Amino acid sequence: MIKPYVCLFALTALLVPAYSQVPTSSSSGLTDYPVFRFFFKHVVLTEGYANLQLAESRDDSGQRHYFKNLASLTDAEEALLKSTATQADKSLVAFDQTTAQLAQAWRARYPAPTQLPASALAEAHARSAQRQQIVQGYVNALKAGMAPGRFQLLYLFVWSTEAPRIKFSGSGSPLGAPPSKLPLPKH
Known about the structure:
Number of strands: 0
Shape: elongated
Distance between the termini: 73 Å
Number of helices: 8
Largest sheet: none
Order of helices and strands: HHHHHHHH
Structural class: mainly alpha
Helix content: 55-70%
């Protein structure tokens, strides 16, 4: 009676793709925020490379369908991924521009970082949280637009392909120092 279960377990272990064995946020120190932020950027850049190839009258299909082929996405899932990644990137660029303008205003008003009032530091922390919420909103959009099992496969794919490429900065944070420790930009 036990033998069929052992065979089934062994067969399942052979059929499970390698990317299903991804580290969790607790074991790698990463969360969905940097992993999906980098993934969305990767999708946008890859689409940009495909556009360049097309402009040079070269075959762009390898770049154009890179994630579809690599992650075994359907046509609809590929379209959803590309539009979601593009929207996420545009939203973050706009958010980062307003954050940079805010930082410039703070720098003009408070030349020394030690002069920053607690309210400015609190706002910097809040903006960091808002940035993470933007990314999470687009992850949720992908999740809502895909069948649960299909999203889970994409999720595991993203963690297995993007997380290993994320390098930590000297601060130990995958995206640099937390806002309270970031120097204000110099212009």
